[in-house]
Amino acid sequence: PSRDEMYVLGFIAGKGTVSLAVDGQSIFLRAYLKFNKNRIWDVRGDNIRRRGEPGPEIIEYALPDVLKLTSLFQSVFQLPVVPERLDIDDQGTFRKKEIVWTIGPLNSKSGIISRLFPARPVNQDILKYPPKYLMDINMPKELAKAFLQGISDATAVIPGQESAAFGSTGRPRIQLEPDNERWYWLVPMCFLFQRVMKIRVRSIRCRLQ
After folding, report:
1. Is the bond leading into 105 cis (omega within 30 degrees of zero)?
2. What span, in angstroms and rounded, lies between the C-alpha atoms of 28 and 107?
3. Is 95 left (phi over 0), alpha (psi -120 to 50) or beta?
4. Helix (H) or strand (E) holding 157
5. What is the pTM (predicted TM-score) of this model?
6. Cα–Cα distances in Å, from 114 out to 21, 94, 117?
7. Widest CA span in the chain
8. Are 70 and 55 contacting, i.e. CB atoms less than 8 angstroms apart?
9. What pLDDT, on the 0 to 100 scale, is given for residue 200?
10. pLDDT by residue (tens digit) across 129-183?
11. Which pLDDT value is given to residue 137?
12. CA–CA gap between residue 136 and residue 140 (Å, rounded)
């Protein structure tokens, strides 16, 4: 896979989903970008540290990146892709938002699918297990970086005052939170961070629901 394809693989693997098309032979991929707050300076309801105005909507702030991702998906998959905005929790602490891209239909003869998932049946379980080439110690560093950048962009949480309870500060770390269904992907993630990129993984915590 190319660098762009590796980035897209990581981004979709982080929180993406797969569904079968009506013909039963093709799939639709859905990539998600999730925001845990509505506006730039929103804080949790129990946070005593407040600012004045909450600022612009975070989706408006992220619009240039949303457009770049849309263009990238269209280029990699050679299909028209339109982002859709969803309000998934309008009453919660942070009034969570999502941007979702639906990509497809894609079948087993699609060049991009055969490159990303070689020798893999094309069905709704295609994202369950990571492709074996992610465990290649000789993977070029730029490809490893592209994959990790994609999955980090889709799943990273950077703790701060706005996401802490009672005004406490966030810990100085970057926390990656792939969906629970992606726990098989943690092995190649750690492998690429530590063996290829030489970046230490401090801890792994799994929460089963």
Report:
1. yes
2. 9
3. left
4. strand 156-157
5. 0.82
6. 18, 39, 5
7. 55
8. no
9. 81
10. 999 999 998 999 999 999 999 998 888 875 555 555 444 455 555 677 777 778 8
11. 87
12. 9
pLDDT digits 0-9 by tens, 49-98: 555 666 677 777 788 888 999 999 999 999 989 888 776 655 555 556 78
- Percentage with pLDDT > 70 across the chain: 74
d(Cα 38, Cα 171) in Å, to the nearest integer? 22
CB 86 within 8 A of CB 125: no
Contacts of 110 (CB under 8 A, 6+ apart): none
Distance CA 134, CA 48 (A): 44
The residue whose two tokens read 């693989």 is 9
Q: Which two tokens stand for residue 172?
A: 């100085």
Paired tokens of 154: 């889709």
CA dist 90 and 120 (Å) reads: 39
Query: What is the C-alpha to C-alpha distance for residues 11 and 3, in angstroms, rounded to an integer?
Result: 12
Measured in whole angstroms, how far is the alpha carbon of residue 30 from the centre of its chain? 11
What are the backbone angles phi and psi of residue 180, rounded to the nearest 5°? Answer: -55, -35
